[in-house]
Amino acid sequence: MAKCEICDKGQHFGIQISHSHRRSNRAWKPNIRRAKMTINGVTKRMYVCANCLRSAKKTV
User: Fold this and answer.
1) What is the pLDDT of residue 39?
2) Rounded to two decimals, what is the model's pTM?
3) Which residue, 9, 26, 40, 48, is the most exposed by fewest CB within 10 angstroms?
4) Eight-class DSSP state of 19
C-alpha cells in the first residue's frame, strides 16, 4: 500500500463493529493521489494524501 511521501500516512487496521455488535477486522486506507509538487525549487511527482495536497502550496 502506498504512503504519503510528506506526512508518511499509511494504512491503519482496526475492528469494525456493526449495528448488531458483530466485530470484523478492517483496514482504513488514506486518500493517496499522484501530484506534481515543487519542493525547494525542484518539481517532481509524488504520492501525496489529499490532506497534504489541500494544505500544501503546490504547482501543477
Assistant:
1) 79
2) 0.69
3) 40
4) T
Distance from C-alpha of 9 to C-alpha of 31, rounded to nearest angstrom: 10
How many CB atoms are located within 10 Å of the residue 56 CB? 15
CA distance 23 to 25: 7
Max Cα–Cα distance, the chain, nearest Å: 54
Q: What pLDDT does 47 receive? A: 93
User: What is the sign, positive or negative, of the torsion defined by CA atoms of 58, 52, 44, 39?
Assistant: positive
Below-70 pLDDT ranges, the chain: 1, 57-60
Phi, psi angles (nearest 5°) of residue 34: -100, 120
